[in-house]
């Protein structure tokens, strides 16, 4: 990555961090884009060069995950099962406390998820990211209706597993207990996917 790309990535991160801090302090709806820009010491037009909407100030963190499932499927061993590759990736995420799996007890991560799932406009925007993830996975699975149906089921399973893990930790359950159960739940869910989806998946 060149210097220009690193500077751009740093700008994304810095402005997003400022925005999320303000949103957590005051509430998403009570903070204007102009206020975020002022706090980040940039102009409002500059902010919109990096983020197309207020919601993207929060959700750009999901951008790197949009085509993650597609990348995992594309990188699997020849003849390997796409579902098995995704199962192993999800389990590895649980093991390393990847926030995308919901198994993370860091107070900042929990606050971020409360902000995300507690704000209707952010939830709606999140589904746009999930749809793009489905589109990318559909292509990786070969395209067509069967691939699209499979991609939709896979993305839904990952989302539901992660939300359940986050909800339990947010409700005060020990992370170790949630992690143990999350592994069992993921193994079961991906086994059902494996059994129910076309052999080509």
Q: Could you characterize the architecture of this molecule?
A:
It is a single chain. This protein has 201 residues and is mainly α. 72% of the residues lie in helices and 0% in strands. It contains ten helices and no strands. The chain has helices spanning 3-26, 33-40, 44-50, 56-59, 68-74, 82-95, 107-117, 120-140, 145-170, 175-196. Helix 1 (3-26) packs across helix 2 (33-40), helix 5 runs parallel beside helix 8 (120-140) and helix 9 runs antiparallel to helix 10. The longest helix has 26 residues, at 145-170. It starts with a helix and ends in a 5-residue tail after the last helix.
- Could you give the distance between the termini? 34 Å
Percentage of residues assigned to helices: over 70%
Strand content: under 5%
| N-to-C series of helices and strands | HHHHHHHHHH
* Unreliable stretches covering 5 or more consecutive residues: none
The Cα radius of gyration reads: 18 Å
Q: Structural class per helix/strand content?
A: mainly alpha
Please describe the biggest sheet, giving its number of strands, its sense, and whether it closes into a barrel: none
Overall morphology: globular
Mean pLDDT: 93
Q: Quickly count the helices.
A: 10
What is the total tally of β strands? 0
